[in-house]
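Quick entry, no commentary yet.
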Amino acid sequence: MKVIICGAGQVGWQIARHLSGERNDVTVVDYNPDLVRRATDTLDVQGITGHASYPDILSRAGAEDADMIIAATHSDEVNMVTCQVAHSVFEIPRKIARLRSKSYLDAIYADIYRRDHLPIDVVISPEREVADAALRRLKTPSAFDSEQFLEGDAQLMGIAIEDGCPVVNTPLRQLTDLFSTLRAIVVGVRRDGRLFAPEPNDQLFVGDQCYFVAHTEDVNRTLEIFGKSTKKQERLVIIGAGNVGLSVARVLEKKTDRIRAKVIEKDRNAAELAADTLERTIVLHGDGLENSLMSEAGIERADALLAVTDDDKTNLLAAVRAKQAGAAMAICLINDPTMVPLLEPLNIDAYINPRATTVSSILRHIRHGRVRGVYSVGDAEAEVIEAQVLSTSPISGQRIQDIDFPEGVLVGAIRQGKTVISPKGTTRINEGDIVVIFALAADVPEVERLLQVSVDFF
């Protein structure tokens, strides 16, 4: 597949890393020569320096015979024009654009993206994706990572194994025997900085980070087995009333089991906009790092703090101060991955990585075949793929124990008809089943081959 990626920032670089690693023909376009050089020096890609919306630049990038273009520059307008040029001049069949402005994302204007207007096949909104990720974190406060699959019937959860965990030093095979009715499977473990797919005889140790896939009805029971609290959250303080903070507050206002939220925003205009937009949420104007303002927001009684400003350092410091003041949990937005190792020593419970959420959204739309969902785990270390099994797939009709999966691959859940099951070695995968598969990054191409994706390309 020949792909042009416009924008060599963090998102563009990660998408290029994924696709070039799977032996696609990738060309990266950016007006910043340093970013282009970084991509060509570190990845097996070609690079073009120039404005992505210019026809001559796209022509140099090979747009005449490209299969897909991904417009992920920092400008919404450049991304939109790039897709228009890709369609009108080069007839590129698949066009994906990242758009940030809420006005462009309003549902009442959705018709603008039809082929006879602005021909964009898929619109990705980082802010919307991040807001959804924040809401998932709040729903499962004891998890540092969370994503839904199988139309909400299965969940991937990432939890830290701590002192007091009842199942520490217990082989995973034994967990299946002890909790025979539990619909949950441990699919990944990160130990000493390395992520791997565990074997049945592997054990969990204090300090591990564990990823499991569970039926949604069994999530709380699974968390309790791992010694995690399932306490319902009722009080929330949000630092930052930008697109993300405002979106989260809006959703919370609509929930029947209402969470009482207070928002702190430093910029007066943004604070006034939030106050006018929100009906039942208190908006405070001021610096979210000030102890007096945090106290006014009731941080000492808060079940969680959500720091989602556009500044990583502000988010980190706000989370630290909130925990010191008595907040039960702190979640912060982190754009710079080099800051993630600071979270544990700073006692910050969870973080949201906008890059990872956006990359996951884009991957969902560029995977071949009947892929219905993709989630990027960690720093693109692994993927969780939801896909429908085709009749031509090598795994169709096979028992899991007879399938030659790579060592870094585990099946976490299967939907057979209307029933979601936790698979065992003897479980047979049939045509039409929907599978949720955990795969280390290096093993993703083999998983796609086993799903026989090329037969149903696009």
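second:
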Amino acid sequence: MDDKTGLERELKFHCPDLNTLRERLVGADAERVAPSSLEDNLIFDRGLELVESGRILRLRRDGSGARLTYKGPATYEGGVKVRKEQETRVADAEAVEQILTSLGYEVTGRYQKHREEWAVGGVLVALDHTPIGDFTEFEGDGAETLAARFGFPAEGAERRNYLELYADHRKDNPAAPEDMVFVR
């Protein structure tokens, strides 16, 4: 997210080889911002009021703690997804979950991924290993240019979020778990 404007500028791509991308990031003098850690994401909605308007309310737990995030409806500038994003760290994720439930929100989706983060200039590059494959995200001003430099042209960007990708995956794999989680 761009802290000055509160706007997230993001490109997401299927990435068949995270190891090669990681090596290229090292070769580009990228800084590893965060090692791989498991993220567990809960999406909240009340009826379908948020999803029907393209908004997201997410509670994320990961190796650095927990964050509550609101994302507004997406627009596109070329292939770049642009949306308002507000996020705050929370000390007690369980309490926040109870507050949201008390306000009439319910968990409508869950997804997990192992995420590793790198920074190149002002662009954050995320390497995501998910139960349905590997993806990379480029976020920030200059995301489109950096993505293209690494072989990911903006016109090939994935417009679906992880829950939409998983819903499509389940159509082809009806025995898959209800939520996009790693099965032990």
